[in-house]
Amino acid sequence: WTQATSSLSLTLQQTLSAKREFIALIPTDLGISLPAQGLRANQKELTISTNAALGPIPPTSMVSTPAVGYFEKTDLAFDPSCDGSRDTGLTVGFILVTELVEGDEVSIKLPGFTYINTESSAIPVTSSPAGSMSNFAQYYQGVDNLQIVFRAEQTVPALAKVVAKVPAGAGVLLPTSGIRKNDLRLLIETNAESGYVPLILFEMSLL
Predict the structure, then answer these.
(1) Is 159 left (phi over 0), alpha (psi -120 to 50) or beta?
(2) What contacts 22, CB < 8 A, 6 or more positions away?
(3) Backbone Cα Rg of the chain
(4) pLDDT tens, 95-142?
(5) CB atoms within 10 A of CB 25
(6) In whole angstroms, what is the distance from residue 79 CA to residue 76 CA?
(7) Burial (CB count within 10 angstroms: exposed 0-12, middle 13-18, buried 19+), residue 39
(8) How many CA atoms lie within 13 A of 160 on its CB side?
(9) Is 92 within 8 Å of 164 (Cβ atoms)?
(10) How many CB atoms are located within 10 Å of the residue 77 CB?
């Protein structure tokens, strides 16, 4: 890997016959990181070349590459009830390096949490910037896991801070075992068209 040219060079240790598929797996600990602005789908700047003796090929754009984004910042805060019950509100904050467009989803997974207002098909939400996320989030209750899915209602520019709040009393309950500060079980992901982000830990979570 050459940082100055952002290029990765692979040297074959044996002959590779014509029309044979070649797959290289690059470990994450090599130190290669995504660009600060993420990657667009089929980004033309991603190229491949070879100096093969029987037919060199100049830098050529990849035929197919995925869009990839990442969260520059994520945080999750809880607003537990003062009456000693497990009821809690929650506030999700994040900064995505790529834009969100209408219909994109940001999901959080909360192991041990439950949603008791099962007569409702959705959870009420307020957001900032105002109207950036739908006023209702979908939820999926597993045996030991609650997933809440926030849906973008409009385009949110890259690097904009988004905050989505679920009020106390909405029906979200804390785990019976409680949670810890920066609990390693709390996860966030997005299927953003401009660059998906698989499940990652919240950078910060507070009770």
Answers:
(1) left
(2) 16
(3) 22
(4) 998 899 999 999 999 999 999 988 888 999 999 999 999 999 999 999
(5) 4
(6) 10
(7) buried
(8) 17
(9) yes
(10) 17
